[in-house]
């Protein structure tokens, strides 16, 4: 009997304030748990607007300590109550002036497992992230959760194949890619890069993108969150491009083994030949 | 607006083989001396050229005719002539023997063979003008026929759109021209609509997952795809499945069809509306029972409903907005189809994993519908079904329950999810409402109030209804009708007199109650 992980991702629109945004996500966790989901990942910077459309220091106040801030604590309680693994993409303050774009990982018993800090920080029109975040150097953590081995690769990270590979080498079975990305900019990449990463690294990918246009800019966040398997097949349908949606899918881990037995990418890779890739 | 196919449609062409088979050409006794494996190359035009550097004059796809007068005596020039044609991507070379060469020159033949260039020699003197006239006129006729077909299809589709024809009518028109199944999908490969001969369409849908993954892969087998989109967005795809004519014509039909669908959507249709129509057509067929459920399974799967090892929960919602129902399903992450039925009812078919608690999730869905303000729809449910074949009966049961609640105010005594057992007698009466015996019974019991008469009081029937519905509670009935208790007593006495009954007798009161339920059920 193969292991099936019921996994979920949640896409939604900015409600206009932080507290109601948190409540929407709490309800989503309850809805996912009602369906028997074992793990749920939220969208990038889940409880805020995508403030990187502007460069304004007032948004620094969205940053919290991880794991000692109130939001992580609040969702630890919820994770324990619902018995669900939660991945919380947040704005992290390590200390005043040292801020990261981070995802905290909470296990199904409410325990804090660790965090991944976004490695690649963009600075392009509508995505002024260098104003807000330092690049993370998290050494590609893979978290042993109740739902399996989970990695996180945040938004712009996805354009860089090296991190996907590092997470695969560290044993990830599912990699979540919480994002905030705009139709005009990346729609042509959205169903290309993550499926390609799933194929190249032979694991499942859960891709999440928020929806709607927010008051801070013209970015049209186009949702269409999905799970994709190691053969680049979407697991069920892709979510709406406009509406709030919870995506719950059964991921059959037998597929991972089956594909790796067929294609021996991990055996045949040649790290000794890749030295130029790590030259500064 | 964008309408694209995988490869730009080439102009209509004849192949080298087809040209050599023409009766007038055969008079020149053509013989293929090289490149015999390439005779199916399309010929776009026929060109007479003697110059050694012929390639610079060509655009590709030409059949070049030559007597070879400028090539005789120099093997190097002959070889270069062929190479030049090859570089220019000419389709073939035809050498008329007699003027310069009595026999095919070996250097030219070898060069043509190496390039894979069909080389044909004509053994009898043959006026090139005759050949060019014959071929060009055929090519022009083909082009004209293609343009003419394109215009005819476009005119027909535009006419349909401007007359407000529904999506299905457009697809039927396209299928009429293509004589093969036509499938419209959204970007997730969910089938939104189909047209064509039913059994052929069913064959396609049965194998849909595999076909959808290969879509656009091999047009040579008659699978022709056109993307549908506009304003920088792609919305869906149109597929001709197994088109048996030539690819160019198939592509032309797919393109015209895709253009029409873009226009249809820009003029008010939406992909969501297309998806809704698709679900509506499917669930209406499931409910009607005209088509066996098993035959509808491929359509359900193609419409995006998970059907393998699932539990199906048939629901019918009264006074629910179908758009909101779809949004709530997405919000909760529950796979399902939503389809508006008649008279304010909407069918929802949930598809859940076997290990999920179907009853609890159905209640979860119904409870969520009640939040967020606005109208409070009534959600009727049938027992969950694990076999697809049982889904039609389940949907009919849910519809029956929903109909049986129709006389009940939303807030009165109705659980969040209403089941057959909750509608009790009301449900039974609803089922039997068309029975002539039941109708006669209701008429008989209520005759004295229904006939009215000169001294008839139109308020008596509602008073009787309230009195019986409240369990013969006089003070509540008086309160609900805004009358004093003495006034109510007078009306109850009038009712007893008109009907000749004693309302304090339980059996007589129960009989009237059933008659009233039957009367009300018939009127809805």
TrEMBL record, chain A:
Which PROSITE patterns does its entry note? CN_HYDROLASE
The UniProt entry, under Pfam families, shows: CN_hydrolase
Q: Name one GO molecular function term.
A: N-carbamoyl-D-amino acid hydrolase activity
Cite the InterPro entries for this sequence: Aliph_Amidase/BUP, C-N_Hydrolase, C-N_Hydrolase_sf
What class does this enzyme belong to in the EC scheme? hydrolase
| Chain segments annotated as coiled-coil in the UniProt record | none
Q: Which segments constitute the CN hydrolase domain? A: 4-253
Superkingdom of the source? Bacteria
Enzyme Commission number: 3.5.1.77
**Mind listing the UniProt keywords for this protein, alphabetically?**
Hydrolase
Q: Which PANTHER family does UniProt cross-reference here?
A: BETA-UREIDOPROPIONASE (PTHR43674:SF2), NITRILASE C965.09-RELATED (PTHR43674)
Instruction: Please report the name of this protein according to its UniProt entry.
Output: N-carbamoyl-D-amino acid hydrolase
The species this protein was found in: Streptomyces jeddahensis
TrEMBL record, chain B:
Record's InterPro entries? Answer: CdaR-like_regulators, PucR_C-HTH_dom, PucR_C-HTH_sf, PucR_dom
The name under which this protein is listed is Purine catabolism regulatory protein-like family protein
Q: Where is the signal peptide?
A: none
Query: Domain named PucR C-terminal helix-turn-helix: which ranges?
Result: 460-518
Q: Domain named Purine catabolism PurC-like: which ranges?
A: 19-138
Question: PANTHER family under this entry?
Answer: CARBOHYDRATE DIACID REGULATOR, DNA-BINDING TRANSCRIPTIONAL ACTIVATOR ADER
Identify one Pfam family in the record: PucR
User: Gene3D superfamilies, from UniProt?
Assistant: PucR C-terminal helix-turn-helix domain
